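Subject: Re: docking follow-up (zinc ion)

Dear J.,

Thanks for your patience while I sorted out the input files. As discussed at Tuesday's group meeting, I've set up the holo structure prediction with zinc ion included as the bound ligand rather than trying to dock it afterwards. The sequence and the ligand SMILES I used are pasted below, so you can double-check that they match what you have on your end before we go further.
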Amino acid sequence: MYLGVDIGGTKVLALVLNRDGKVLARGKTRVQQTDPDSVLETVRRSVRKALERAPGKTKIRRVGLGVPSSVRGGTALFAPALGWREVEIEKLAERALGRPVFVGNDVNLGMAAEYRLGAGRAKGTVAGFFVGTGVGGAIIHEGRLLRGEDGMAGELGHLIVAPDGRKCGCGNRGCLEAYASKTALLARIKEALYRDHRPSVLAQEVQPGTKMIRSSVLVRAYQRRDAVACEVLDEGLKMLGPAVASVLNLLSPQRIVLGGGVVEAFGAPLVEKVRRWAKPYVFGDRDRVRAVVPSALGDDAVALGAALLARHKGSLL
Ligand SMILES: [Zn+2]
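The structure tokens for the complex came back this morning:
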């Protein structure tokens, strides 16, 4: 059996899988502190919960770990969501869990899981946008994860959708992430509430010092037709249109998977909208926007990908 663990900025999810990739048990724990020691303690707790719930005797051979960071040689190079730089997470996790551990980037693992088990199954070229606190991206080209010369390929959140546009967390201007991420949406909501003094149901949830907002809160305000929520979300997420179309024009993939907290919370209506927003920018046959599909694995995608990584001893796609 294999363990897949997803380390996120707010929670750790551990899944126990059997050899056929079936989920036998899960354990989830909230992340309180994000320093490596505290996060590893949270990982241990999630793993313990999952193992307690697994049926029968479970012998875990290897553990896969997904981290929100670029990864090289078992080291998390930079994880802004956790405030990590150069953390030797593979070594630390092996010590904490007492088993061999394999570490990978969370978005790549989520995409690999969608490719093997989910929305992109058995398709040659697949790209994915994962919209949450940031906008993650990954590309699998003809069955291989596209890494590029330096491992930096596939950063779809940093496609330029507005030259000289808004400043992005990466330092550039006009990136998709500067418009469509929850970080960007929250900043716009604060402007509407506290600079422009507009009324909104979101005023209860969002104060000037609020650091993050739950996707479900955004969706609820949107569904209630709150003017600020509708305006900010439509304006920000609309930028997925040209970004998705650019990927279609560049790669002509068989699937473009949309996932992440925001997509999960909105569900099919958002996917339909993204198709509509992308359509005018598609080269040639515009009906190719049909390739845009929702993630099939949802919140489990990264942990499943991590378990696959463990199963294949660190070499995944
Ligand atoms: Zn950027």
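A couple of observations from a first look. Residues 36-53 form the longest helix (18 residues). The radius of gyration is 19 Å.

Let me know if you'd like me to rerun anything.

Best regards,
T.
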